[in-house]
Amino acid sequence: MKKLQVYVLKEFFPPFLLSLGLFTFIMLLDKLLDLLDLIVSKGVPMRIVAEIFLLLLPSMIAVVIPMGVLAGILIAVGRLSSDLEITAMKASGASVYNIIFPLGVVALLIAGTLVVFNNSILPDANHVARNLLLDIGTMRPTATIEPGMFVDEIEGYRIFVKEKDDLTGKLIGVIIHSSTPGAPDRTITAMEGTMEPVGANHLRLTLEDGQMHEKDRINGYRYASFSSYIIDIARSEELVRHDRNSRGDREMSAEQMGLFIDSLSRRRTLLVDSISNVSELFMTSVYSGDNPVSLGDSTRRLRNTTTLLTGTSTDLILLNEQVNNLQRNMGKYNVEIHKKYSIPFACIVFVLLGVPLGLSSKKSTAGLAVSLSLVFILIYYFFLIAGEQLADRGRIAAWTAMWSPNILLGSLGVYLTYRSMREGHPIPLPDFKELGKKFRRKGRRK
Predict the structure, then answer these.
(1) What are phi and psi of 226, to 5 degrees?
(2) DSSP 8-state assignment for residue 141
């Protein structure tokens, strides 16, 4: 039986590696267009673009490995089934278990390796890629500005443009949020503008027909209109690399995110205590016999009560909003933690699903196997992405969002595996070649 299991693994690895390359290439197509745009339209050196390309590969590999496992199993088991080798195995006393066991062990090893990969290599690769894109934003500020979306790769600025002409530097529908240390926060809007280099170290953004909204703690809110406004953005002809300590959720390991969630939880506890203290102070002040609200005539009491209610309600609203923001951030990081384990676990789920599906095909081809795998992959990632969106909004728990696709498809896989062990073909798929011949015969008769 060991020779049989080794034979099954030899049949699995070539289509697995081929599927990995195919799915990675498909995912790279969209990125390749963006990278070519950096070279052709934005003038970013090719060696830097090649570095970005290599740094983006780990994030794709983490997603395509479970896809490759499913496609590889469908192709390998489907070929064994169509060549009647499965029938020969059963005749010699082997069972479906002898096929599932070696594939399950390999899937378990792949899943374990992927968990380590997701918590060590992937976060650092994402962090270095983000730092490099921010540095490119300083070197070539126009390179990161994309029409129709906010970009924050230019340090200290979040920029939105409705339309952009890369050749002339003309911008239409500009919104800029400026946040720099020692300066008030600003939001600048303009109907149009131009972006052009000034010397070797600056890029000049000239805005026309716009408004500026400024807010700080000392001067409060200020508003002004302008016909022309100039912003100078520092830039460099050479790439200057910076190592930024701040990391996003996809730039952390599960352990780092767990520590960060603990810090957010402590801050949330302090804010909840503050809300309780503010409410208690308000009630004490209102019902105390010698407080300002209870003194004076009715007009004065009404004015004092209104002032106290307004101030307290504003404080409570702000505190509650901060608590809600912290809760949303905690949920977001919890989703990423579970994702680092749920996606690798899909490799095991796809073994339980792929083997019975492969056995069901009478005359399997590689194209049919890849197409069938794509169907289940789309189902899996649809549930995963939808669950992530719901969990980020606080509608469902992070655990439920990330593990429900594994539970649903895993349950289906267990059921199909049980049927294949008891009844042979769990899902008698049609012979697509025979169907094609029948349709061609009917066409000739007509």
Answers:
(1) -145, 155
(2) G
Query: Whole-angstrom Cα distance, residue 428 to residue 363?
Result: 11
Q: What is the CA radius of gyration of the chain?
A: 30
Same structural domain, 393 and 346: yes
Are residue 10 and residue 106 in the same domain, yes or no? yes
Query: pLDDT above 90 covers what percent of the chain?
Result: 15
What whole-number distance in Å separates Cα of residue 215 and Cα of residue 172? 25
Host domain of residue 211: 145-234
In angstroms, rounded to a whole number, what is the distance separating the alpha carbons of residues 401 and 131? Answer: 30
- 199 assigned to some structural domain: yes
What's the CA gap between 117 and 61, in Å, rounded? 10
Q: How confident is the model at residue 434 (pLDDT cuts 50, 70, 90)?
A: low
Q: Are residues 6 and 91 in the same domain?
A: yes
Q: 119 and 154: one domain?
A: no
118 & 28 share domain: yes
Q: What kind and span of H or E run contains 247?
A: none
Q: Which of 19, 3, 7, 2 is nearest to 77 (CA)?
A: 7
**Could you give the maximum distance between any two Cα atoms of the chain, in Å?**
104
Angle (nearest 5°) at CA 350 between 345 and 352:
105
Cα separation, 308 vs 122, whole angstroms: 52
Number of domains in the chain: 2
369 shares its domain with 408 = yes
Identify whether 370 is part of a domain.
yes
Residue at 12: amino acid letter: F
Which residue spans within 181-320 are E strands per DSSP?
Answer: 185-198, 202-216, 220-234
What average pLDDT does this structure show over 397-426?
A: 84
Residues 119 and 14 in one domain: yes
Predicted TM-score (pTM) of the model is 0.69
Structure tokens at 248: 């996003």
Shared domain check, 339 and 221? no
Kindly compute the dihedral angle of the four CA atoms of residues 309, 314, 320, 322, in this order, to the nearest 10 degrees. -160
Burial of 329 (0-12, 13-18, 19+ CB in 10 A): middle
DSSP 14-73: HHHHHHHHHHHHHHHHHHHHHHHHHHHTT---HHHHHHHHHHHHHHHHHHHHHHHHHHHH
Are 198 and 204 in contact, with CB atoms under 8 Å apart?
A: yes
Q: Is residue 299 one of the residues assigned to a domain?
A: no
Type of residue at 134: L
